[in-house]
Protein: Exopolysaccharide biosynthesis polyprenyl glycosylphosphotransferase
Amino acid sequence: MSVRYSKYFPGLIFITDLLLLNWAFYSGHLIQTKSYLWDADTTLFLLFINITWLSVAAISGNFKIKRPLQLGDNINKFMASLIYHLLIVFVIFYFFKLAYIPRFFLVVSYVLFFCFVVIYRSVVFFCLDFIRKKGYNNRQVVIIGDEEIAQRLLNSFSHHPEYGYNLADFIAEERVLNMAEQELTDALLSKKPDEIFICYKQMDGEFLKRLVQFGDSNFIKINVVSDLILNNNGAQLVNYNELPILHITSHPQISMKIRFLKRAFDIAFSASVLIMGFPAFLILAIITKLTSRGPVFYKQQRIGRNEKPFYIHKFRSMRIDAEKFGPQLAREYDPRVTKWGRMMRKTRLDELPQFWNVLKGDMSVVGPRPERQHFIEQIVEKTPNYKKLLRVRPGVTSIGQVHYGYAENVDQMRDRVRYDLLYLQNISLNSDLNIIFKTVKVMVQGKGK
Structure:
């Protein structure tokens, strides 16, 4: 394309987000008051949220779309901005009591804003993906250096056309060595690249510095490609003064931002379930008490984050002597399960009290299922990777629970671990919401056991 329309995307998304913000809050006001008119307090509030959003968005840069396209990362960045915006609004209007703003209006408006933006950005990313796969909106790139590394990079480009890269030229390491520096820069400029990928196993630092300066002077993005193959290991670039260090672990590092967002979501979600679900809790408790002998709630020690034990809470679904012969896993048509307990387990209603564990910080809404030490020792013996799951808070639901369900023996528990390890590679609010939606579907269909 002769015209690069992608440079207009950030501004378009910035303006559209602002319009969606106003649409969401106007809709929230309409739902709350059934009126199209604004009072003085609401007008002041709307002005404040617009100014605050402009500031938060400008600072966070959540409207910027980077290559390669990663919708999940973009949504997470938007979520961070949304939470910061909500905190500022809450402190200013509720702590300082500047004006009365109904909480229902606030909750509905923010939920609508989140939904509007997620839908809008999903459409934008889908369109960009489609356009780039058709060969449009692509960037011209030049690759310099080792042929083996360059080939791996080209394979990545060919498998992911949505990245939007076209190879303008490849200049092999041997050819670079036989070229004068001016000749090399002239050759690069003649291809009019948008980005240059430098692929070297060993490279002169001064030469690299001059290439970076050349890129800065000519508005060309310079990328340095490592010759490492990490096989999904976690990697993080850390700068020690002027020395870049690649920190590599066998598990992905969860950023502080993701930890903060995940915990904030856990608190908000669990508090909402406990408050709004109280009538349902009361009904479940009464039925549990009337249908079988024993306490309403059942607690059991599980192993949580960093191998710290805690007590998990559930509505009791089994007879009180269910484990008189030692730890046992539940199985299909288990005679120890009460008739009412079987219905609760199929709809997973017995696990609702675990949201108290979430609120306390023992668990997360989404995360690997917590197990007992007795079974963990057997799993680790055959699947040592299980210990990676103990680095994060266990969850009320998990990708393993959704796709595999409850395990009846240790071998099935090991099979389920594979799903949870995949989740560990892709922790984000986007994936958490997806798992929650799938869990609700399982509950409605009664596919638990």
Summary: The chain has a mean pLDDT of 83. The domain at 139-230 is CATH 3.40.50.280 (Rossmann fold). Strands lie at 139-145, 165-172, 195-199, 221-225, 234-240, 243-249, 297-303, 309-315, 364-366, 395-397. Residues 199 and 226 are 7 Å apart (CA to CA).
